[in-house]
Amino acid sequence: MGDTDGYTVITDIRQVDFNDEMAVMNEIGRFAETYAYAGVEHALVITPAGNAYSLRGTELSVNPGIISRDELVGSIVVHNHPGSEADSFSRYDFASFFDLGLSREEVVFGSLHHTMRYIGVPVTPNKANDLYRIAFNDVRRNAMQTGIPIKHEQLETMRQLSRTMEGLIFNENT
Fold this sequence. Notes:
The protein has 5 helices and 7 strands. It is about 35% helix and about 25% strand. The chain has a 7-stranded mixed sheet, sandwiched between helices. The protein is globular, with a radius of gyration of 16 Å. The chain has one domain (about 10-170). By secondary structure, the protein is α+β, with helices and mostly antiparallel strands. Strand 4 (about 75-80), helix 3 and strand 5 (about 105-110) form a beta-alpha-beta unit. It has helices spanning about 20-35, 70, 90-100, 125-145, 155-165; strands spanning about 10-15, 40-45, 50-55, 75-80, 105-110, 110-120, 170.
């Protein structure tokens, strides 16, 4: 506890039975209630080893990678996006999901809660970054062609990815 990379700090470590879905969902629910409207990014990382790390970041990011990569593989990460203009998973969130080998990632912002899982062939972080960029460009191109404005670019990008990327499971308001 107290470990930091200069931007993210581990504020708490406790035990949670990773295989008890009800216990995991209770932890995620408490996190969402506490941080959905927070002014800085926070994260809860629940590892297959049963450790639940609470992290505090900055207004712009929180870094689950502060935890050892060996422990992160297969983990569940939930984090918040602060601010009235908050949006769904960013390109960084998407690429780090694959880079860290997470089993599930969730983001809360205001009353919204999105979840991402992947059950396809392995994807490198560079490939994930490219796929996100392509989907983002498709969303922008569609908006330009139709004249329909984009309210939440990251949300529309995730919706596009869920239509075009086999194995990606994206859920809104889970």
